[in-house]
Design goal:
disordered N terminus; two-stranded antiparallel ribbon; 11 helices; Serine Threonine Protein Phosphatase 5, Tetratricopeptide repeat; alpha+beta; 20 strands; Porin
Amino acid sequence: MNLVKLIVGGPISKLSLLLYLFFNIYLVNETNGQTQNFYDSLNFAKIQLNQGKINEALQLLDILEESHPGDENVIRVKGQALYWSKDFQSTKSYFKKSIQTYPSLAWIKLDFGRILYELNEFPESEELIKEFLTLEVDHPEALQMLAEMNYWTGGKPNVSYTYLDKILAPYPDNEPANRIKKEIKQNTAPRIGFQSVFYSDTQIMKYFGFQTTAEFYHSALLQPGFLAEYRTYENGKTVQIAQASLKSGFIKSGTDLYLRAGMANSSQWGNQELTYGAEVRQKLPANLVLAGSLDQEYYLYTLPSIAQPISPVTFRSSLGRETGKNWIGKALYQKSLFEDDNWVQTFAAWFLIPIVQANAIHLSLGYSFNFSDSKEVRFSENLPIKNQVGNTGFETVIPGSYTPYFTPINQVTNGFLGKVKFDFTPKFNLSLTGNVGVYARIDNPNMIYFGAPPSPGPGQSSGLGQGPGLGQGPGNQPISQEDIYLILIDQEFSPLDFKASIDWKISPKSTLNSSYNYQETIFFTSHLLNLGLKISLWNE
């Protein structure tokens, strides 16, 4: 009663007191009723939104926002409705304006950050979520989104681990956090590989090789690697190869830069040959990749190249689709410049279209094309010449070979391309790839003898080439190189390329792979056998 007197400033009657109490009870009930109506309306807007009635929900939310400006719940539901309407520009404009008008509202920053995260607009999303975490420092979803965005944008793995550990410290069984942490460890762990190689062809070149590789990940911009290889050939010659590499990935632009440098050496070379190069790969829409590279490289594809160093400068460019449901393929161009002012260039293209896509069998068929040409041919007779004057007829083909490197002239190949993959288990698969030439031709080099046995001298027999007291006659002498001419002959041939490969994931950290490659060209037939092991060095 004293309080009422203090408010009204003097004595009051009982009737006035009753009226005062009734008025206050009315105001409280009216306010509670309005509040209940507000939440009922907001819940009804959510129900309409969940039923897909987005426009109806937005109309009601506009009314609620007008009567309750700055209410965080209304802003959050309306922002969600705009996002579900797929009007992303209006969604972003609405959230930006709301955050600018009501900067103290934390949860709309999380909602907007989540939307930008789902739209892959990571920099702005990170900024908003970090602002939110200044108020809600241990929010699991916000911490996980920051960990994932750091990983997806090529950041250091330890930054992601810091965010995830804040979740796992109080919640060690948090499945999403454990899953993403394991994924980051698997994909950024150091990798080492070991491979043994056996190669044989009809040049005749045979060698056994052993190769080891290592790959490391510090961040997308810093991914160093190393390769070392040792080859021993059937004739006792050896070759050693070493190369260091660095990959830098620019996630935002979809660009990858590769730098490499190394050396190659043979037991017959006077000194080591330095190699170096750079490559740029650019991701394009529709899973296309544009690539270009320039390298000073070693050449080890002929017997003479093992005896003397050959280091062409090679330019490569390609445009291809490496993944896709409807087709994959590539078009490429390569040109090698040799030290003797000669060049060899190749244009090739291929594609594969899936025909069968079952759970255990994947079959694709396609086509391949190749055109190769050289400025000048490098082909000569094999030395020493074994043909003799007396046993070599006019226009006889003398054995020869490409020296010191292959130089195809107007070579064209067309082939049917096919690939079948058998997934016997999720960890074991077999792939078979074949390229069968249907039409192929080349200006094939031939060393042809255009000389003739000399006329018999006095006392000599033209049949045996033996004269009295002369020992070996002219008919038994090696033919002269001056009588051998290089002739290009238009010739068709049937190339064949077949490869079988097996991949077996023997543990979460190691994969065993092996392959056999058979190749038949107009130059030679070859066999290549590989057996390799790849190991990922990460902890559970």
